[in-house]
Write a structure and sequence with these properties.
The protein is α+β, with helices and mostly antiparallel strands and about 180 residues long. It folds into two domains: about 35 residues; about 100 residues, 3-layer Sandwich (Rieske Iron-sulfur Protein). It contains two helices and ten strands, in the order H-H-E-E-E-E-E-E-E-E-E-E. The protein has a six-stranded antiparallel sheet. The longest helix has about 35 residues. It is elongated and about 95 Å long.
């Protein structure tokens, strides 16, 4: 049996001295989460680059969508007898990933919009009694005549499609040019 009377009281069970450990790891636990100015500046710089990149991607996507949307071919959406006055029809245009809504406001008065709310892209629904398009997510309200935002958080109007009626068919072709 070994005699433990000569054992150093500052030694840990594995034989390392406490003072040696403190020399090797001089950081106090309270200083663990402290960030230097250089680290903070690097974090801000990288975050700024990420935001600039995200903005570039969003702008490029909008330009691409506008370019693809304006070069879309005309498509027959409905026959005149399919939709009653005050009624609507859902369809996809220009791709299968783009939901749209066609409204019949009068005998020969049709309007069509991209169905995604301009606020957070929730689908809008037509309220024929009020003559408005409603977004149930954040209580957004849009005009059924021109798609402009009337109430709620949306500030931009809905994307409006060009609509024509000929040969007893309702046709859409591309999106209207908008300044807002």
């Amino acid at each position: 049996m070994a005699d433990n009377s000569h054992r150093d009281p500052k030694r840990t069970p594995n034989g390392d001295s406490e003072s040696r450990w403190r020399q090797d790891f001089p950081i106090q636990s309270g200083e663990d989460s402290y960030a230097t100015r250089r680290e903070f500046t690097k974090f801000l710089g990288l975050t700024s680059v990420a935001f600039v990149f995200g903005t570039f991607v969003a702008a490029a996507r909008k330009i691409w969508k506008h370019w693809v949307g304006t070069s879309s071919e005309a498509r027959s959406v409905a026959g005149l007898s399919e939709i009653d006055i005050g009624g609507y029809k859902l369809f996809r245009y220009p791709t299968q990933d783009d939901p749209c809504i066609l409204l019949r406001l009068g005998t020969n008065e049709f309007t069509a919009f991209n169905q995604n709310c301009s606020h957070l892209a929730c689908p809008v629904h037509f309220d024929s009694q009020a003559g408005q398009l409603l977004c149930p997510c954040h209580v957004g309200v849009f005009s059924a005549e021109d798609g402009r935002a009337l109430a709620g958080p949306p500030r931009r109007r809905l994307e409006v499609l060009n609509v024509e009626v000929h040969d007893a068919q309702v046709w859409v072709e591309g999106f209207e040019e908008t300044s807002t």
